[in-house]
Structures are given as structure tokens and as C-alpha cells.
Write a structure and sequence with these properties.
The protein is α/β, with parallel strands linked by helices. It folds into two domains: 4-250, Aldolase class I (TIM Barrel); 259-328, Putative flavin oxidoreducatase, domain 2 (Non-ribosomal Peptide Synthetase Peptidyl Carrier Protein, Chain A). 44% of the residues lie in helices and 14% in strands. The chain is built from 15 helices and eleven strands. The protein has helices at residues 28-36, 49-53, 57-61, 81-93, 108-111, 123-135, 156-165, 189-196, 213-223, 239-250, 259-277, 279-286, 290-294, 300-307, 313-328, and strands at 4-7, 10-13, 16-19, 42-43, 47-48, 72-77, 98-103, 141-146, 170-174, 204-207, 227-230. Strands 3, 4, 5, 6, 7, 8, 9, 10 and 11 form a nine-stranded parallel β-sheet that branches. Strands 1-2 form a two-stranded antiparallel ribbon. Strand 8, helix 7 (156-165) and strand 9 (170-174) form a beta-alpha-beta unit. Helix 4 (81-93) packs parallel to helix 6, helix 9 (213-223) packs across helix 10 and helix 11 packs across helix 12 (279-286). The longest helix is centred in the last third of the chain and has 19 residues, at 259-277.
Length: 329
């Protein structure tokens, strides 16, 4: 297999290990941390097409990224062709490396309105909007989607063919249906069938339940996908990217990060977030990451519970320094 992966004009090494787009998680500070630890490709939080057109502050903020985050994809969602085309033009002006369409989010506030994976019960509309977006930009357009709408309908092999035919440059497939949300196990067999389809020439990236390096290696070898996208397992755990790469290269897992490194990276992450968002918002959003940063520590639940009560950077820094001191004495 060729060691180079082409997504439109973007050249990457195969296999790609990517950070999944996650709302209120994959902001600029966390993307930078994940790049530092080996993520090949990162994505913004998903951005509402309608929010961009209304010039909503939160939506416009998500367009901002630094060059150190490249290659980066900006992900958009919506259910109306006109607004998605207009949003595509706004996103194109931000000059990311690619534009990703979210046809995969299963949550009610998105899918219930026909956006995200809600569109999987209307495949012709999905194809029509995607084709319009491809025509509206010179950037590579990729799609993140699911196997189908529910257990009775999993047309992902056909969907992938049709997306490729209209010019989509790569597809990421989450191994669940819309109706499953995040329950049950991700089914990679259909992801593998898409990749094995002789008609498919574009990169296929698998997503779902990749929680450690051995699973990533097994999915790559078993289903021959061009890459792995890691989502929830990366929250508060940016080390997963270097662990996957090390295990793929040598079959050996690197030692887990020390308490000192966990605290150092958390504070680096938090400091960057504060510089971008301000102290109050950054600390509130950082709470999603505490579980990942500290789940390996003794008395983790007590540490997390106390961290959740702290509202200032100086308080968090002092508390973590006390923990580190206690662990060394």
C-alpha cells in the first residue's frame, strides 16, 4: 500500500491518525496539544451554517486557528443547500486545508432538524447538498457520516460510491447508525466493506470505539482503512496519538505519562485556552478534560471533584502543585 495519502491536494502519511471534531472539546488549545503529541489531522468543533450566516460570535470564533494546527479541517453542519453553500464560501475565506461536512452527528438538537446524521433518511438530499458544496469551493471537501439511519437501513457502501462520484475527497465513517447514538459497539465490518469496494478510490477513515493503541492497530489491519479518527478517547488524553504511532511502528506501547507530565500538559492546555477565551469560559470547558488527565491517579474521583469547584487558574495551579508535592514525598 502506498505510504502517501492524498485528500484532494493535501498530502499526508498513511495511515492518518486524526482528532475527531467534538463540540466544546476540540477548540484551538486542545487541537494544538493533540498536534504536539502526534495527531496528523485535526478538525474544528462543528459550526452551524445558519450561525455563520447570522454572524454569531460563537460560530465565527470557531473559524479561527493557528498555522501550527495545520493540516486542519473546518466542519460545518446544516440541512439547507442555500445556507450550506453560503457558509462554505465563508469557511473557504478562512483558508483551512479542507472543509468537512457533518453528516454524522446523532444528537437530537442537530439530527432532529435534518442536519448531521438526521439526513441519512433522505440520501438524495444528502448527495444534492454535498454536491453543491463541492462546487462552491476550491478546497477539498470531505464527509463524516454513519452507517445509516437505523438497523433497517445501512446503505453506507452505496452512499460512499455516490459521494465519491460527486467529488468528495475522503470519507470518515463512524461505525454506528443514527438511531444508536453512542450505544452498543461500533460495527467496523461495513466500514471495511466500503474500503474493500473496488469502486472506491478515495481515502476511507474509520471511527468509533478506538480507545487505545492496540485497538487502533487491529482496526487498521483487519479492515484496511486509510486512517483512524479518535474522538472521546482523546479527551484529556492527547498522549493517545503518540501511543498509537509508537505501537504501529514497533508493537511496543510507550510508558504512560507521569503525574508530573499530566499536570504540566493540563496547565499548558488551560493556559492556552485562557489566552484565547478568557479565564471563566476556559476553566468551565476544561472540566470536560479532567477525567482523561487524571483517571490514572490514586484518589482520582476526589481530585476531580475538588477541581470542579475551582474557578481561577491560580487555584488550580496551587492545588495541582500540592498533589505533585504529595506524590513525591
Amino acid at each position: 500500500m502506498d505510504s502517501t495519502l492524498n485528500i484532494g491536494s493535501l498530502n499526508l502519511s498513511r495511515p492518518v491518525i486524526a482528532l475527531a471534531p467534538m463540540e466544546d472539546v476540540t477548540d484551538s488549545s486542545f487541537r494544538r496539544i493533540c498536534k504536539k503529541f502526534g495527531a496528523d489531522l485535526v478538525y474544528t468543533e462543528f459550526i452551524s451554517a445558519d450561525g455563520l450566516l447570522r454572524e454569531g460570535e460563537k460560530s465565527l470564533d470557531k473559524l479561527r486557528f493557528s498555522d501550527e494546527e495545520r493540516p486542519i479541517g473546518i466542519q460545518i453542519f446544516g440541512n439547507n443547500a442555500a445556507s450550506m453553500i453560503a457558509a462554505t464560501k465563508i469557511v473557504s475565506s478562512a483558508n483551512p486545508d479542507l472543509i468537512d461536512i457533518n453528516w454524522g452527528c446523532p444528537v437530537k438538537k442537530v439530527a432532529g432538524k435534518g442536519s448531521g446524521s438526521g439526513i441519512l433518511d433522505d440520501i438524495p438530499k444528502m448527495i444534492a447538498i454535498t454536491q453543491a458544496i463541492v462546487k462552491a469551493t476550491n478546497l477539498p471537501v470531505t464527509v463524516k457520516t454513519r452507517l445509516g439511519y437505523d438497523e433497517t437501513s445501512k446503505p453506507i457502501v452505496e452512499i460512499a460510491e455516490r459521494l465519491q462520484d460527486i467529488g468528495v475527497a475522503a470519507i470518515t465513517i463512524h461505525g454506528r447508525t443514527r438511531s444508536q447514538l453512542y450505544s452498543g459497539e461500533a460495527d467496523w465490518t461495513l466500514i471495511g466493506k466500503v474500503k474493500e469496494n473496488p469502486r472506491i478510490k478515495i481515502p476511507i477513515i474509520g471511527n468509533g470505539d478506538v480507545i487505545n493503541a492496540p485497538i487502533a492497530k487491529a482496526m487498521l489491519e483487519r479492515h484496511h482503512v486509510d486512517g483512524i479518527m479518535i474522538g472521546r478517547a482523546a479527551i484529556g488524553n492527547p498522549w493517545i496519538f503518540c501511543e498509537v504511532k509508537s505501537f504501529l511502528d514497533s508493537g511496543i506501547l510507550p510508558p504512560p505519562p507521569s503525574i508530573d507530565e499530566r499536570m504540566r500538559v493540563l496547565m499548558e492546555h488551560l493556559k492556552m485556552a485562557i489566552e484565547i477565551k478568557g479565564e471563566r469560559r476556559a476553566i468551565l470547558e476544561m472540566r470536560k478534560h479532567y477525567n482523561g488527565y487524571f483517571k490514572a491517579l490514586p484518589n482520582f474521583k476526589k481530585i476531580r471533584s475538588h477541581l470542579m469547584t475551582l474557578n481561577y487558574y491560580s487555584q488550580i495551579e496551587d492545588f495541582l502543585q500540592n498533589i505533585l508535592h504529595s506524590s513525591l514525598t
